Amino acid sequence: MAFLLETIRMGLTNLRLHMLRSILTALGIIFGVLAVIVMSSLGEGAKRAALAQIERLGARNIIIRSQKPPDTQQQQGSQQQSFVSRYGITRADLEVIRENFPDAEAIVPLKEVGGQIIRDDKRRVSQAFGVTPQLMSAANLRVGAGRYLHESDMNEKARVCVVGAEIARQFFPLEDPRGKTLRIDRVPFTVVGVLEPIGLAGGAGAALIGRDLNLDVHVPMTTARDTFGDLVVRGTSGSFQASSVEVSEVYISVPTRERVIPDAERLRLIVKSRHRSQTDVGLIVPYELLENARKTALTFNLIFGAIAAISLLVGGIGIMNIMLASVTERIREIGVRRALGATRQHILWQFLVETSVLSAIGGGIGVAVGVGGSLLVGWAAPNMPTAITLWSILVSFSVATATGLVFGLYPARRAAMADPIVALRHD
Length: 427
Fold this sequence. Notes:
By secondary structure, the chain is α+β, with helices and mostly antiparallel strands. It contains 15 helices and 15 strands.
C-alpha cells in the first residue's frame, strides 16, 4: 500500500511539474468524453421526444381513419367541378368492428362536420368532429380549462364544444373562451372547455394523424349527426368540394400491448373484406411506430457512439505519443532510479499511474463539461431536446480511464525495459 501511495504521489508531482503538457495531453480525452455525453444526450433527447409524441397517440390504440382516395383527389384537381364523393368508414363497418372486438376497452368513433369555424370576422376551414366522451381517455386528451363533453351533452344533443389550444389562441386571444360562442358553419356552439396543448402539433404525431390536433373542435356525436348529417361542403375559388363520410375515424383501445399487433392484422383483414380497393381507409398503429422509433434511435446511438469512440481513440494516441516523448526525455531519471534499487515493475507502475491519473482527470473534466454542454444545448435550443443518461457518463469515464491504461502500457513497458547502464550514460 505504501509503495502504491508513493508511486501515485510521484506521478502527480511529475504531472504538476509539466502542467501545460499534461493539460494539452488530457485535451484529447476531455473532448472525447465531451463528445460521448453530448451526442448521447442529443440522441436520447430526440428518441424520448419522438417516443413521447407517438405514445401520446396511445400505445394500446389502433386508429382506423377514412381518407379520400387518390383518384377522387385527382379528379377534383383536374376538373374543378362540383360533385359529392362518398368514401371511408361506414356505420355498418363500425358495427362489424364492434362485433369482432367485443373485449376492446373502448371503440370511439369520430365524425367530421362543417365547412368553416367562424367567430365574428375570423374564420378558418373546419376541423370539427362529432365525438363521444370516451375519446378523452382513448386519445389521452387533457383539459386545460373548463370540462370535456359529458354523457348528458350526448343525451340532450347539446350545442356545446371543446376547442383545441390553438383554436382558443386564434379565436379568443385576449379572453377566456369558456361561455363564448363559436359557430360551425351557421350553427352556434357554446365553448365549455379548452384542451391542453398537444405536443404533436407540427411533429411526428400530426403527420401520422394528418392534422394538427390543437386545431380540433369537439362536439357531441349526437349533435353532429342530428345537425350536420353526413355531408361536408367546403368551398374553393370557383367551385366547391362536397364529401359524404359516415365515420371519419375510429379509436380502438385493446386490453394489452401484446394484443395490438395481432388485433391490427385482424382489423386489416376486416377492412380488406369490406373495402376492396383499400384506398379509402387507412390504419395507424402507434405501437408499431413506437417500436420502429426505438430501433431508429438505437441505430443513431450506435452511430453517435462510434463517432465519440473515434474521439477517444485520438485522445489515447495523443497520450501514448506524449508518454513516449516523456520516456525519452526522462531516460536518465529511469537509470538513476534503477541504480538506486527500483525494479522494472516499479518503473512500469510509475508510468502507468501517470497515464491513468492523467486520463482519469481528463475523463472527470470531460464529464463535467459534457453535462454542462448538454444542459446548455437544451436551454439554448428548445427544439433540440437533450436527456443526460447515467450510462453515457459511466461508460465515457470508464473508457477514458481504460484508454489511458491501454495506450500508456507500451511507453511504460518501454521505460521499464530500459538498460540502467545505458540510461545513466544518456545525456
